[in-house]
Write a structure and sequence with these properties.
The protein has 328 residues and is an alpha+beta fold. Helices cover 42% and strands 16% of the residues.
Length: 328
């Protein structure tokens, strides 16, 4: 988030108790735009209280809720969070924060486990992730919402617009390569990307948003955070998921092949989608580098992008270079 937190943990606890009847201890979680709290209860895994950014349009807040309710109806076996209703039966609560600003809060079930980011990686796990993302895509295929076609910077179709941010990022890693990649993508690949099949997708199947069983880390027990969900090219969702599988430079290409192969067992990609996929994967890496650097330049004290140091991105950019070279 660009702004300092406006909701205290005490206020989050009050919101959970007053409106949802949940008594617990609020522990702040990270968030790019929203304020998130783990409401820890004496019994059970607890809940997640999400307070939407004050500048977020109401229809965007409702989009995430509607998507999760849709998944619950269409495929209740998918390991996604459930939306809890307040005492009045609503899915959203309006309140005034400590700064006097009107805000919206939503309560979700908490999915316990270990983030994929901190788990041991394996081929079985990557295959599980690939099949799960394809299944989630099936569940969301017919989802429609007034805000689903929003313009979102994290949508890979918007990659060319990142060119406008480059001057705001001092000392950008591999700036020459990134600038050239974005220019080339806009000229050669954006037109083709616009012709591929599209649908509403999760769009953020990264290693922080995939939860595994600590006792059996090849078993995925949760997919969280629909905050970047959007109607876009289906292949873009696969590219995002493939980058989420990257853990080390020596297994990078293998990880991508295993994940995409398992995805295609459930939802085969056509020849055009497979042809552009390497560029989309490289594009997601570039997107991550630019957006992380931009956020840090604007909000040096923010914790959401902690852990993404220069070394983290260096070998990923090297992978992006290889993917670009291999798809010429």
């Amino acid at each position: 988030m660009d702004d300092l937190p406006l909701v205290s943990s005490a206020h989050a606890e009050w919101l959970a108790g007053e409106h949802f009847g949940i008594v617990g201890h609020a522990e702040r979680l990270t968030g790019e735009r929203d304020e998130n709290f783990w409401i820890r209860t004496e019994v059970g895994p607890g809940y997640v209280l999400k307070v939407a950014n004050a500048a977020e349009a109401p229809e965007i807040t409702d989009l995430q809720i509607a998507a999760l309710l849709h998944v619950e109806r269409v495929d209740p076996g998918l390991p996604c969070a459930r939306v809890l209703r307040c005492k009045g039966g609503r899915t959203q609560v309006r309140f005034v924060d400590e700064n006097g600003t009107g805000r919206t809060a939503v309560l979700y079930s908490f999915l316990p486990g270990k983030p994929l980011l901190h788990a041991h990686r394996s081929p079985v796990q990557r295959a599980t992730c690939g099949r799960l993302l394809a299944g989630l895509g099936h569940a969301l295929r017919n989802f429609e919402h007034p805000a689903s076609h929003r313009v979102l910077v994290w949508d890979l179709r918007q990659l060319p617009k990142l060119q406008g941010l480059l001057e705001e990022v001092p000392r950008l890693l591999e700036a020459e390569f990134i600038r050239g990649f974005l220019t080339d993508f806009a000229a050669r690949f954006s037109p083709g990307l616009a012709t591929l099949r599209t649908q509403f997708v999760h769009n953020d199947f990264n290693a922080r948003n995939v939860i595994v069983d600590p006792a059996e880390e090849s078993r995925v027990v949760g997919v969280i955070d629909f905050g970047d969900s959007v109607h876009t090219a289906l292949a873009a969702d696969v590219a995002v998921g493939a980058v989420g599988q990257l853990a080390a430079p020596d297994t990078a290409e293998e990880s991508i092949r295993e994940f995409v192969g398992a995805y295609c067992e459930v939802e085969p990609l056509d020849s055009e989608e497979l042809a552009i996929l390497p560029r989309l994967i490289a594009g997601r890496i570039v997107q991550n580098v630019v957006m992380t650097s931009w956020h840090r330049a604007r909000n040096a004290g923010g914790a959401h992008f902690d852990g993404f140091d220069t070394a983290y991105f260096e070998w990923r950019v090297a992978l992006a270079r290889r993917l670009v070279a291999g798809s010429q």
